[in-house]
């Protein structure tokens, strides 16, 4: 078996115990794993969610975590990524529980009322109350 010498390995590959692996591919798999866990366990609803918690979930350091999120999340930062998930969940809750108040929905999503309104408008182009009123599944119309 032939292995590349260290000077033949570019910055997208690493050498570990004589094996060469593609760091980008591994980082992508780690992001998929993280994203699945965040969704399945609804970690985004936790008020105390932190970068450190998420680093622990996929067993990586802070710098590698930042690289993974920048490359694969589609967001400019962790806050945007988590808040997008929260707002998407809010839309699900609006459909599922049209009788819930917006305050109950934002709390269930792990956000305070001010952040909820700001991010909702950022991602949907209108406040949550307008969005809800524009949908046929809304019972508050």
Brief summary:
The protein is mainly alpha-helical and 141 residues long.
SSE topology sketch:
Elements: E1 13-16, E2 19-22, H1 23-40, H2 51-58, H3 62-72, H4 78-96, H5 102-108, H6 113-124, H7 128-133
Antiparallel strand pairs: 1-2
Helix pairs in contact: 1-3, 4-5, 4-6
Instruction: Figure out the total of helices.
Output: 7
- Following the backbone from N to C, one meets helices and strands in this order, namely EEHHHHHHH
Biggest β-sheet: count, sense, barrel?
2 strands, antiparallel
Overall pLDDT score? 84
Structure keywords:
141 residues, mainly alpha, two-stranded antiparallel sheet, 2 strands
Describe the protein's architecture and organization.
The chain is mainly alpha-helical and 141 residues long. Helix content is 57%, strand content 6%. The protein contains seven helices and two strands; from the N terminus they run ββααααααα. It has helices at 23-40, 51-58, 62-72, 78-96, 102-108, 113-124, 128-133, and strands spanning 13-16, 19-22. It has a two-stranded antiparallel sheet with strand order 1-2. Helix 1 (23-40) packs across helix 3, helix 4 packs across helix 5 and helix 4 (78-96) packs across helix 6 (113-124). The longest helix has 19 residues, at 78-96. The radius of gyration is 20 Å and the shape is elongated. It starts with 12 loop residues before the first strand and ends in an 8-residue tail after the last helix. The model is unreliable at 1-15 (pLDDT under 50).
């Amino acid at each position: 078996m032939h292995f590349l010498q260290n000077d033949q390995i570019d910055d997208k590959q690493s050498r570990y115990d004589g094996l060469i692996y593609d760091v980008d591919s591994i980082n992508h798999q780690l992001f998929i794993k993280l994203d699945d866990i965040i969704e399945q366990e609804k970690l985004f609803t936790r008020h105390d969610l932190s970068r450190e918690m998420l680093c622990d979930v996929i067993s990586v350091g802070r710098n590698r975590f930042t690289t993974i999120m920048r490359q694969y999340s589609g967001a400019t930062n962790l806050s945007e990524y988590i808040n997008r998930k929260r707002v998407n969940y809010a839309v699900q809750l609006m459909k599922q529980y049209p009788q819930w108040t917006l305050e109950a929905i934002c709390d269930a999503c792990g956000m305070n009322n001010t952040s909820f309104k700001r991010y909702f408008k950022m991602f949907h182009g209108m406040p949550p109350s307008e969005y809800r009123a524009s949908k046929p599944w809304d019972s508050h119309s």
